[in-house]
Amino acid sequence: MLNEIEVFSVDTVRERLGQLTAGIASHRAVNNRFYRRWMSGPLTIEGLQVFVRNYGAFIIEFPNAMAEIILVTDDLEAKTEHVKTLFSEMGYGNPQKLHSVLFDNFFGELARKLGCEGCLDRSYLAATELLPSTRRFNDGERRLYGNKSPQIAVGAQLAQEWQAYTMLRQLYEGARNYLGLWSNEDEFHEACEYYYVHIGAAEKDHKDESLRAAVQYAQDEASLVLVTQGFNEHLDLYVDFWEGIYDEIVAVHPASALPEAQTASA
Fold it and tell me: Does 4 reside within a domain?
């Protein structure tokens, strides 16, 4: 006699997924050396170039990953949630509001304030090789989002969106280290549209969208195992990604290391 599969109620699925996402706050995906350094004070131009080149490569590739997950998602409700996220990333149809464009706008303005106009432009930095950890991240994210198992794909997207609010909030806190370069504080906040779009609404909406999509697929213990696998693998990619950026920032300017690292090497 075949064992009966226990199908979870929606409340049970939401409870189990809530337990999964609750651990993000203490995960190294959002608690790592890069964020501590980024928020502790300004970087050198060289350090900023490392960050802009590699994080910029992630955000330009993310819509492509979302296209992958839309293709492998057969549940129409889940697919609709992914489409809403992609539409948001693409500026709700306005090319001037693409998230990658808003990011480029901030760092273009920051470069001007630092007296090196153009040195943080995407086109200028394109000649610099991506870090191996950034390539691993982009390749790994596409692999997860295009996985033949939609459960793994939605688990990866759940991890993305439930760490993203903390990620953007910490990136904004670090951006504030450069506020003093603007003589008009209002102009600084105008330049910060990339951060405010996410903190104000986008990431809250994306969290809800990713959760609703995951609920459609985590309907029993076996499927929840796969969702959890995609979730954890994506967070692990983030750890590698951020640690790679931090290590390169220190490599180009050793004095940029966190104080504990400098003490250990003394």
Answer: no
Amino acid at 243: E
**3-class SS of residue 235:** helix
Cα(93)–Cα(45) distance, rounded to whole angstroms?
Answer: 33
* Residue range 201-229, pLDDT digits in tens: 656 677 777 778 777 877 788 888 999 99
Residue 228 to residues 70, 118, 127, 224: CA-CA distances in angstroms?
19, 42, 37, 6
Domain extent for 68: 10-18+26-265
CATH number at residue 94: 1.20.910.10
Distance, CA of 214 to CA of 82 (rounded, Å): 10
Taking alpha carbons only, the member of 146, 119, 139, 152 closest to residue 53 is 119
DSSP class per residue in 71-82 = HH---HHHHHHH
In a domain, 3, yes or no: no
Place of tokens 């086109």: 123
DSSP state of 96: G
Between the alpha carbon of residue 123 and those of residues 151, 176, 245, the distances in Å are 37, 25, 19
The model carries a pTM of 0.90
Task: Supply the DSSP symbol for 192.
Answer: T
